[in-house]
Amino acid sequence: MRDHVRCWSIPRLTAIATVAAAVIGLSGAVSSEAQAGALRQPGPRAATHIVARANPFTTQAMRTYLRSRRGDITAALYDVESHTLYLYRPGVTEQTASIVKVDILETLLHVEQRVYRPLDGDDEYLATGMIEESDNDDATDLWNEVGGPAAIARYDSLAGLTDTTPNAAGYWGETMTTALDQVRLVEHLVFSNKLLDAVSRAYELGLMEHVIPFDRWGVCVGPPAGVTVALKNGWVPIVDDDWQINSIGYVNGRGRDYVVAILTNGNLTEGYGITTIEGMSRLIWSRLAPKPKR
């Protein structure tokens, strides 16, 4: 039994708008670890006065917590409410482990969409197993079906994932990526874009909202019942006493609306890495609480 808190899925809320990222550095002692940048959405909301919330990665509570954890940690967070991107240790690359399954399915949906062909029953069966149960055999079948690393790389290039490299030997879990790229990937499910239509986005997010209870941990911890959480986790032992533990997802409800990716390695155990991510997730959820109306 894993030593972590379970979270439960609920129906997804529809998100709108396309986002484009521009990252600027923070001044002061935290500039080497965290950055914040404005992400503007087109349309009427862009004309409103936006006040960025305080960076969740540079609060005293988060700094204290991270100092108490060992391992290599990197994270990215896009706060839809303030149109702001926050990065913790940007540019650090990590193995994807099973979070690459989100990438595999996005690639498949994009390829089938281009030829106006919906997923057939076999592909739906494999996609469900790959996302909801994190089935590795299903992932391998779909990885090969879409065309392997070359096809994934083509989709990633179109999606603006500039620091993601699918494993050339076909070991999909050893794909390298950054937290920012993983936020960009999930954004293509949350916001309207040219690569995936509304049906494709809703389909994959729906699977991510129904990950089996045993595997629902990570960025779903902090949000209470009634909040939408669509997520995918990844976990793999790299060597003895060194686990790669990752969690990516979309959170919407109770005045929060954000996409988040937390990637970690150097964890002594699977449970230790999960605890690190869940502690960060709680602090992020708390920090993004809406201000009381006056």
Tell me the name of the CATH homologous superfamily.
DD-peptidase/beta-lactamase superfamily
> What class do helices, strands and sheet pairing give?
alpha+beta
Give, in order, the helices and strands.
Answer: EEEHEEEHHHHEHHEEEH
- The CATH class name reads Alpha Beta
Proportion in helices: 25-40%
Give the total of domains. Answer: 1
Contiguous low-pLDDT stretches (5 residues minimum) are: 1-6, 8-49
Morphology call:
globular
Task: Provide mean pLDDT, rounded.
Answer: 86
Oligomer: single chain
Distance between the termini: 46 Å
Number of alpha- plus pi-helical segments: 8
Indicate the radius of gyration in whole angstroms: 18 Å
CATH topology: Beta-lactamase
Walk me through what this model shows.
- With 294 residues, this protein is α+β, with helices and mostly antiparallel strands.
- The chain has one domain (20-221, 229-287): DD-peptidase/beta-lactamase superfamily (Beta-lactamase, 3-Layer(aba) Sandwich), CATH 3.40.710.10.
- The protein is 33% helix and 22% strand.
- The chain contains 8 helices and 10 strands.
- It has helices spanning 60-67, 100-114, 121-132, 136-146, 148-158, 179-190, 198-208, 270-287, and strands at 20-21, 24-25, 34-40, 72-79, 84-88, 94-95, 176-177, 228-239, 242-253, 256-267.
- The strands form 2 sheets. Strands 1, 2, 3, 4, 5, 8, 9 and 10 form an 8-stranded antiparallel β-sheet that branches.
- Helix 2 (100-114) packs parallel to helix 4 (136-146), helix 2 crosses helix 5 (148-158) and helix 3 (121-132) packs across helix 4 (136-146).
- The termini are far apart.
- Residues 1-6 and 8-49 have low confidence and may be disordered.
